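Supplementary Methods. Inverse-folding protocol.

Structures were first reduced to a discrete structure-token string of length 449. This string, shown here, constituted the complete conditioning input.
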């Protein structure tokens, strides 16, 4: 089978976001193959349609907070570009474009379809090719999407037939889900086992060896693209449902005056209890991926009751919190014009700048709609983007001389690690009222989810 040379191939990473950029850097970092210790000489193209992103990266700046030093070091080994012509010489395409949902919670496939079209056009067989191209999808999709949607688009735009049995001018696909956790310094790209798959046994082995050449944690090869796609999506669905369960329990326990945290600690003393904490689910993964599977299941007429229930509970949590806040405020008897709320953290999770699908953004919007004054502090997010796209003014730090009616401690960003009950108390009006979503603050009048 005519496949590109493993250690001397040229690679394009398509889409340089939270997933694509660290991946391109990890590939560039590896100078010798982990398996064979052979020298690696791979050309790497970092491709993104967003020219402002490319310009920033070429200046060594990453809006998602990879250090400037790390990026500048890679400018010799990664060519950051939006020039489609550079893709014509590439052997391996790795697709890391967004797979969001639309306003009806259906998969929005525009980016992955566009990327597939672009790849198809780039691999169009003009001359006889030295080796056949491999396209690896890493974007999260429902099982079947790569072969049912992306492959036909590449075939149409390249004039080639996928996985042609005689191997003459064909192309091959694979799928290897990304499992990184932005903001998490322990679980980084090369410390997480990479699930790999390919359209036939030889391609699957090539893709597996490729990732094993630079992922220190190793790989796990599965028998089909569909299995790899499904494995990723259920990892996030499992978290979504488990968090939804504890969220539902915590809402119930509050009504019957039981401390959820104490219950969870007690239950956790059993060997097979899995401890999850109540919390807000947002971002580009856990709050989105379940909809990809429910969409697929609807398509084939299967009703996924539990997955959908988990989504609706977790989507409701910002409203629940909002009602809790109104409830607490009503007990304070403060004049509506005097009320001011401090929200610490607005991104979708701690130590992450991503505001997509953040329940804290939705909570802030609800508070504003009610004409209540809110001060939002978040040192991680892009404040210009928050103002322009969401109309939310975000501060870097807590204003010194202000006193607040309620403090919502939303996220445990590293910049907030110094904040204790006593310190927060200094920003509170007469009686401290803290809603702590991080479970880190202990003191009187601290309320947990
Ligand atoms: N963010 C995460 O934590 C995470 C973790 C695991 C998996 N994923 C999955 O990885 C995929 C990418 O997510 P992300 O968070 O990195 O997205 P992102 O929005 O941070 O980045 C995507 C990049 O792709 C670019 N892009 C869009 N269409 C393009 C095209 N046709 N050609 C070239 N570039 C294009 C965008 O300009 C953007 O820079 C998604 O499917 C997501 O579900 C994300």
């Amino acid at each position: 089978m005519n496949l590109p040379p493993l250690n001397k191939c040229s690679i394009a990473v398509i889409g340089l976001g939270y997933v694509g950029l660290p991946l391109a850097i990890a590939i560039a970092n590896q100078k010798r193959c982990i398996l064979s210790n052979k020298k690696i000489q791979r050309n790497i193209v970092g491709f993104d349609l967003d020219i402002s992103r490319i310009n920033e990266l070429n200046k060594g700046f990453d809006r998602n907070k990879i250090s400037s030093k790390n990026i500048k070091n890679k400018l010799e080994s990664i060519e950051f570009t939006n020039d489609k012509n550079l893709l014509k010489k590439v052997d391996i395409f790795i697709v890391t474009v967004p797979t969001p949902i639309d306003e009806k919670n259906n998969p929005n496939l525009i980016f992955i379809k566009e990327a597939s079209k672009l790849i198809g056009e780039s691999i169009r067989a003009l001359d006889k090719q030295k080796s056949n191209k491999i396209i690896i999808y890493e974007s999260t999709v429902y099982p079947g999407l790569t072969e049912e949607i992306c492959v036909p688009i590449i075939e149409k735009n390249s004039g080639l037939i996928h996985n042609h049995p005689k191997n003459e001018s064909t192309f091959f696909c694979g799928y290897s889900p990304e499992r990184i956790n932005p903001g998490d310094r322990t679980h980084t790209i090369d410390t997480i086992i990479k699930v790999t798959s390919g359209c036939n046994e030889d391609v699957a082995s090539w893709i597996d060896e490729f990732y094993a050449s630079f992922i220190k944690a190793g790989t796990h090869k599965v028998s089909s693209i569909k299995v790899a796609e499904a494995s990723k999506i259920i990892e996030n669905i499992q978290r979504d449902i488990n968090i939804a369960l504890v969220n539902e329990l915590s809402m119930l326990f509050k009504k019957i005056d039981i401390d959820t945290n104490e219950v969870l600690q007690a239950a956790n003393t059993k060997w097979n209890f899995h401890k999850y904490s109540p919390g807000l689910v947002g971002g580009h993964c856990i709050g989105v991926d379940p909809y990809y599977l429910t969409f697929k299941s609807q398509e084939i007429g299967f009703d996924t009751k539990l997955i959908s229930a988990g989504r609706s509970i977790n989507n409701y949590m910002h409203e629940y919190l909002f009602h809790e806040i109104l409830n607490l405020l009503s007990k304070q008897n403060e004049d509506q014009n005097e009320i001011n709320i401090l929200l610490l953290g607005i991104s979708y999770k701690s130590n992450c700048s991503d505001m997509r699908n953040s329940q804290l953004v939705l909570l802030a919007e609800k508070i504003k709609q009610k004409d209540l004054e809110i001060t939002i502090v978040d040192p991680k997010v892009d404040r210009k983007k928050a103002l322009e796209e969401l109309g939310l003014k975000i501060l870097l730090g807590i204003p010194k001389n202000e006193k607040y009616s309620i403090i919502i401690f939303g996220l445990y960003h590293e910049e907030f690690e110094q904040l204790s009950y006593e310190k927060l108390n200094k920003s509170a009006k007469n009686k401290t009222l803290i809603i702590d979503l991080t479970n880190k603050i202990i003191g009187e009048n601290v309320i947990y989810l």
